[in-house]
Write a structure and sequence with these properties.
- This protein is of the alpha/beta class and about 300 residues long.
- About 40% of the residues lie in helices and about 25% in strands.
- Strands 3, 4, 5, 6, 9, 10 and 11 form a seven-stranded mixed sheet that branches.
- A hairpin with a 2-residue loop joins β1 and β2.
- α1 packs across α3, α1 crosses α4 and α5 crosses α10.
- The longest helix is centred in the N-terminal third of the chain and has 27 residues.
- The termini are far apart.
C-alpha cells in the first residue's frame, strides 16, 4: 500500500461531511481533485470504503474503521509538528473556542493577528447558540467561550472584550424612522425573535418583560441571518446586535427605530471555567488579548 497523508486527510473529511462537495469546500480543493484522491485511496483496498445509494454517499463499516485509524494518524502527525515547533521555541498546540452565533462578527478579529503570529497553533472555533456554547464550556470541552450574557449558574472568570449594543431594527422601507417612539410602540409591531436558547432572544425577552410590553404578534427564527433576512423582507421588526448588521445599515437596507430605553448594552465577554488550568496556547492567547484588546477595538470596531 502506498497511500499518502493527503489522501488520509481527504478521506477523513469525506467521512465527516458525507459529501464530496462539502469536503472539497472545507479543504479548499476542487471537487474533481477530491474525487480523484478518494478513487486513488480506494484502489489500495479490496473492500469498499464508501458507497452511493440514491445519489447519497455512505461510509461502509470498513470505511468507518479506516477513518478512525486515519484520524489517529493525522493527530499523531500534528503532535510531531507541534513538538518540532516547541523544540524551536515556537508556540504550538490547539486553541478551542465556542462562540454564540452573533459572536462570529466579533471573535475572528480578536484571533487574526494572534494566529498569524503563531503558525503552530491549530484553531477550532465552534459557532452555535448560547445553550450549546455553555454546555461545551461546562463539559470542559473548550478553552474559552464568547458570550454576550455571562452565565450565573456556572462559575466562570471573564475578560470583557467589546460593548454589544442592541437596537430595534426595521427595513429601510418602513416609515418608523423619523422620530423617537415610546416603548409601547412595540405592542403594535410584529416582532421577530430568535429561537429559545439564544442570548439575543434572552435579552429581547427580558426587555419586553421588564417593560411590561404586551407583544401582539411574533415570529421565531433559528438564526441571526434568518432574522436579518426577514426584517429586510419587511416581515417585522427585531431587537438585534448592531454589530451583525452594520453593512446593511451602512448601505441603507436596514434602519434603526429610535425607541425609549434602547439600545440595550451588554458586553462581549470571553469566559472560562473558574480555576481552569490553561494550556500554554490558551494562556498565551489570554495574555495577547489583555495586551492588545484596545488596539484591536480601535482597528476594527471604532
Amino acid at each position: 500500500m502506498n497511500y499518502t497523508l493527503n489522501q488520509l486527510q481527504i478521506f477523513l473529511k469525506i467521512t465527516q461531511t458525507l459529501s464530496i462537495t462539502k469536503a472539497a469546500e472545507e479543504l479548499h480543493l476542487t471537487q474533481p481533485a477530491v474525487s480523484i484522491q478518494l478513487k486513488n485511496f480506494q484502489n489500495q483496498f479490496d473492500i469498499p470504503l464508501t458507497e452511493v445509494v440514491g445519489r447519497k454517499l455512505f461510509v461502509t463499516d470498513f470505511g468507518k474503521e479506516i477513518a478512525l485509524v486515519a484520524e489517529d494518524i493525522i493527530q499523531k502527525v500534528a503532535t510531531i509538528n507541534y513538538k518540532s515547533l516547541a523544540f524551536k521555541g515556537q508556540l504550538s498546540g490547539r486553541l478551542k473556542i465556542s462562540v454564540v452565533s452573533t459572536g462570529k462578527y466579533v471573535m475572528p478579529y480578536f484571533l487574526s493577528d494572534f494566529m498569524h503570529q503563531n503558525e503552530g497553533v491549530n484553531l477550532r472555533m465552534d459557532v452555535t447558540n448560547k445553550t450549546s456554547v455553555l454546555e461545551s464550556l461546562e463539559n470542559n470541552e473548550v478553552d474559552f467561550s464568547l458570550v454576550s450574557i455571562v452565565p450565573h449558574l456556572i462559575q466562570v472568570e471573564k475578560l470583557d472584550l467589546l460593548e454589544n449594543k442592541l437596537y430595534l431594527i426595521g427595513s429601510s422601507k418602513d416609515t418608523l424612522k423619523d422620530k423617537q417612539y415610546k416603548k409601547e410602540v412595540l405592542s403594535d409591531l410584529p416582532l421577530i425573535f430568535r429561537e429559545k436558547g439564544s442570548g439575543t432572544r434572552q435579552t429581547m425577552e427580558k426587555f419586553v418583560t421588564d417593560e411590561k410590553i404586551a407583544v401582539q404578534k411574533k415570529m421565531e427564527l433559528t438564526s441571526n441571518e434568518a432574522v436579518k433576512q426577514a426584517v429586510l423582507a419587511g416581515l417585522g421588526y427585531s431587537i438585534m446586535p448592531v454589530i451583525g448588521i452594520k453593512n446593511e445599515l451602512k448601505d441603507g437596507l436596514l434602519s434603526i427605530v429610535k425607541v425609549a430605553g434602547l439600545p440595550i448594552t451588554t458586553n462581549w465577554s470571553l469566559i472560562w471555567l473558574k480555576g481552569k488550568r490553561h494550556s500554554p496556547v490558551a494562556k498565551a492567547f489570554l495574555d495577547y488579548l489583555e495586551q492588545n484588546k484596545e488596539s484591536i477595538i480601535k482597528k476594527w470596531f471604532a
